[in-house]
């Protein structure tokens, strides 16, 4: 069993800086957990506390049932893979992987079996005699993983393991790591600031900001049901569009007024604003670029959510086009079909998919609906 429990974990550095504030998380056996957030949010500090490389200022950390706050890193049954793979340059791939086992006085034939098994999983069998300098970045990264795998740890900790690789290799390694997780059946905790990596790898994602956990959820839920403005803006690329809007209640209907344009909310969403007493208040309307449509058919079927503007930027990305335009001083992006006729300077109409509208409280930045 490799469950982990983090209760009220805090980290205050000797200079008084609070890097992690009241972190709570129950991690189940075999989960692939991602810590994601902007630079300096406390992801690495949290991971290093789990590894035992950083002292826990307060709170309780359990691996399985064992309280490990004061347990040495080497006795925690975890393996850590860093972004700079830290391979020994004078050793072969085989020796790099075997090194930790030799130190632990594991019998030679057992070491041989473990290294070869790991090499097979990571497709390194043909490279065992090479030195690191004769390997590509991706191969080096796999050796670093191999070194962790041979230890047969209960938990893998990975701190931005792909950040030194080029874009193409990152995509490949992402798939490798996903496979590795399935094959090994271990718990993985993985730190990244890259939201795409987080979305594609994680079974659950922990979004952090300024040392505080913002939301813990499945990739799908984080994307479709962000709890606050920060999570909504951080997950997804291009970013969710955010527009200031004044809420106006007319009977049971609720309109969000953006300048002269009124966007009518569907009944269930409208009710949340009525119940929350938002009539007359400025809120934030959030809509993802893929939910802003420019097709004639969509616009005709959605007369209550139409916006008009002039295209300022046209970006062809191959399978899709991003149209950028200004609405009341805010740049809005629509991700549309590449067959769109719209080009820079054209006056366009777009319609929002009303069911996909998010509304946030401007003061608390929490989601209303
Ligand atoms: P990045 O993505 O840039 O690695 P991160 O989310 O992993 O960022 P941490 O490395 O955990 O962030 O750092 C969290 C905060 O703690 C940062 O503001 C950092 O400056 C601060 N910090 C880190 N180490 C120390 C230290 N030894 N003493 C004081 N403050 C520190």
Automatic annotation (TrEMBL):
What this protein is called in its record is: Carbohydrate ABC transporter ATP-binding protein (CUT1 family)
Kindly list the GO molecular function terms attached to this UniProt entry.
ABC-type transporter activity; ATP binding; ATP hydrolysis activity
Give start-end ranges for the coiled-coil region(s).
Answer: none
CDD domains noted in UniProt: ABC_MalK_N
Against PANTHER family, the record matches this protein to: MALTODEXTRIN IMPORT ATP-BINDING PROTEIN MSMX (PTHR43875), OSMOPROTECTIVE COMPOUNDS UPTAKE ATP-BINDING PROTEIN GGTA (PTHR43875:SF1)
The ABC transporter domain sits at 4-235
Q: Which organism is it from?
A: Lachnotalea glycerini
Q: Name one GO biological process term.
A: carbohydrate transport
Task: Provide one Gene Ontology cellular component.
Answer: ATP-binding cassette (ABC) transporter complex, substrate-binding subunit-containing
Matching SUPFAM superfamilies: MOP-like, P-loop containing nucleoside triphosphate hydrolases
User: Which terms are listed as keywords in the entry?
Assistant: ATP-binding, Nucleotide-binding, Transport
